[in-house]
Amino acid sequence: MKILYNKSQGVAIQFSPSEIKIALIVLKSIHQWCGAGFIKEVIDDIEEDLKPKMLPMINYHHVCSRCCTMIDDRVGNNFVHYVNGNTDEWRHHECHELKKNRP
After folding, report:
1. Number of domains composing the chain
2. pLDDT tens readout for residues 75-98
3. Does residue 68 lie in a domain region?
4. Residues 67-88, buried b or exposed e (16+ Cβ, 10 A)?
5. Phi, psi of 46 (to 5 degrees)
6. How does pLDDT run across 21-73, given as a tens digit for each residue?
C-alpha cells in the first residue's frame, strides 16, 4: 500500500493487486461512513472480480439408447441426438456388433 500526498492535488491511496481484499475493506468502511454511490459501484466491481470463476462442464460421452455402448460426439458422425419433450437420447445410425458371449 502506498499513500501519496500532494498539497495541491490531495491524498491518494494505492493498493497493489495482492492487497485487493484490504482495499475492499477500506472502501466498504469509507462507503459506510459517507454513503457515496460511486464507491458502492467500485465495491461491486471488486467483489465481482473476486468471485471464483466456474469452468463450463461439457459432457462429450453419451450412451446409445439401443446398444448401450458409449458415443463420443467429438468423433465421427455415426450418431443422432433425439430431443422430444422430456425424452433426450443418443443413438448410433448403425450400432456396432457386440462381442459374442458378452456378459
Report:
1. 2
2. 888 899 989 888 889 999 888 887
3. yes
4. eeeebeeeeeeebeeeeeeeee
5. -65, -45
6. 999 999 999 999 998 889 999 999 999 999 988 888 888 999 999 888 899 98
When pLDDT is averaged across residues 1-11 and rounded to a whole number, the result is: 92
Distance of alpha carbon 43 from alpha carbon 87, whole angstroms = 45
Q: Count Cβ atoms below 10 Å from residue 66 Cβ, excluding itself.
A: 12
8 Å CB contact between 66 and 92: yes
Q: Within this chain, do residues 74 and 35 fall inside the same structural domain, yes or no?
A: no
Asked if 45 and 77 sit in the same domain, the reply is no
Q: In this structure, are 46 and 65 located in the same domain?
A: no
Both 14 and 38 in one domain: the answer is yes
The reply to whether 103 falls in a domain is: no
Q: How far apart are CA 78 and CA 7, in angstroms?
A: 75
DSSP element (H, E) containing 81: strand 79-84
> Are 34 and 9 part of one and the same domain?
yes
Q: By residue range, what is the domain housing residue 13? A: 2-50
